[in-house]
Design brief:
Number of domains: 1
Order of helices and strands: HHEEHHHHHHHHHHHH
Oligomer: single chain
Number of helices: 14
Shape: globular
Strand content: under 5%
Largest sheet: 2 strands, antiparallel
Distance between the termini: 54 Å
Strand order of the largest sheet: 1-2
Helix content: over 70%
């Protein structure tokens, strides 16, 4: 336990230090987010958070001495996400190139590490559902979905990092309760790295605006880490966490992505169109300040994860969690439909 605490602190310090240290080089090479259009910030901001978090996580993992084949595949996949994300932050890669990289990362997870969704639980109440030959294709779709859900969430100072932090915290709780040391290590080290980044990304009493952003490098990396842990904790021998609990832990970004993409499709638009109908945009439009929006959405994410974990510990059946999530998703879409439609007319 002492070793874990030490390496968690190491991940935190490295991520915080590099988030600060890399700001000046990023400004020199143009690795910055320029304000304008849909963007809420008022100044050019270095986009180095993803690189800093990756380095904090990886160096602490190496120092812990747990880089077996599975963790090596994780680090390689995260490195690919960060590299392609950083190139996108610099040069605006096409969606096709980013999807290709995400698929390669997903294949690292499924075919190299053997970490894939083989069963999805008793969702309908008629017995466990296995995926057989669809296991790897379904897992790849899950990777793409979670990565892009996190990417869509990254629209305010501290928002994506805070929501991912709460999800990682619940996944760490699930790993600890299950007695699974390997995913617990990954979750705790990634939690610490995100915490170090948030020191420079949140609006705090001593900083009115974020000093760094995570960029696509960070959102792709965190999305991949979340789906890796969610699959690792629910699949295979010794795993008792139901897949639907993992869905509840990541419920907020998934629900907002589903609502936004459905709204765009109903308007005969591309589901990947850039607009201002995400939940954080709607809350800002209703007059909430940036910090309050981050607090509201982080609390929503924490509550959803808490519902999933408590239901698991109380023995609530998978199909109850599944139908409850579908109900939540339907209510979420219906309640926010009017706001989204109104925003689309502006």
């Amino acid at each position: 336990m002492n070793r874990l605490i030490f390496h968690a602190l190491l991940a935190f310090v490295i991520a915080a230090f590099l988030s600060h240290f890399l700001r000046r080089p990023a400004l020199r090479v143009g690795l910055v987010d320029i304000p304008g259009g849909r963007k809420q910030h008022a100044r050019e901001t270095p986009v180095v958070g993803g690189i800093a978090m990756f380095c904090g996580f990886t160096f602490s993992m190496l120092g812990f001495g747990q880089l077996d084949s599975a963790n090596l595949s994780l680090v390689c996949a995260l490195a690919l996400m960060v590299m392609v994300g950083a190139l996108d932050d610099l040069h605006d890669l096409s969606a096709r190139h980013k999807f290709a990289a995400q698929i390669v990362g997903a294949l690292f997870m499924t075919s190299w590490a053997g970490n894939y969704v083989g069963q999805i639980g008793n969702l309908l109440g008629f017995g466990p559902l296995g995926l057989q030959n669809w296991a790897i294709p379904f897992s790849v779709v899950c990777v793409l979905g979670v990565i892009n859900a996190v990417n869509m969430l990254d629209g305010l100072d501290g928002l994506a990092g805070s929501v991912c932090w709460t999800a990682l915290a619940w996944l760490a709780v699930a790993a600890g309760v299950s007695g699974l040391d390997a995913p617990l290590l990954v979750a705790v080290l990634m939690l610490s790295a995100v915490g170090g980044f948030l020191l420079l990304n949140l609006r705090l009493p001593w900083q009115a605006h974020a000093k760094v952003f995570m960029g696509d490098a960070g959102s792709m990396m965190l999305g991949f880490a979340l789906v890796w842990l969610a699959v690792d904790l629910t699949q295979g021998s010794g795993r008792t966490l139901p897949p639907m609990v993992a869905v509840w832990i990541i419920a907020l970004p998934l629900a907002d992505m589903a609502r936004v993409m459905l709204t765009r499709i109903l308007r005969n638009q591309s589901p990947f169109l850039a607009d201002r109908i995400h939940l954080h945009h709607l809350l800002i439009g209703r007059g909430y300040g940036s910090n309050r929006v981050v607090l509201i959405m982080t609390a929503m994410s924490a509550a959803a994860g808490g519902i999933g974990i408590c239901a698991w510990r109380l023995g609530v059946p998978d199909y109850v969690l599944f139908y409850a999530f579908i109900t939540f998703l339907a209510v979420y879409c219906i309640v926010l439909r009017g706001d989204g439609a109104a925003d689309g007319r502006t």
